[in-house]
Design a protein that fits this description.
transmembrane; 0% strand; DUF4305 domain-containing protein; membrane; transmembrane helix; single chain; 2 helices
Amino acid sequence: MNMPKYIDIALIIFLTFFAVQRFMTGQTGIGILFTILALLNVFVLSVKIKQDKKEKTEV
């Protein structure tokens, strides 16, 4: 996993912001989509962190 974790954190923040904005304007379908994407990005970030910890303990 070569992509830095900072990019994932930034994507989580932006997707959450856009989800809140869509919910506030009444576009719940798009808001749900952004929410799901943000949650998937949180999952990917947690997998990256676990993998990095595993690689550090093996070396």
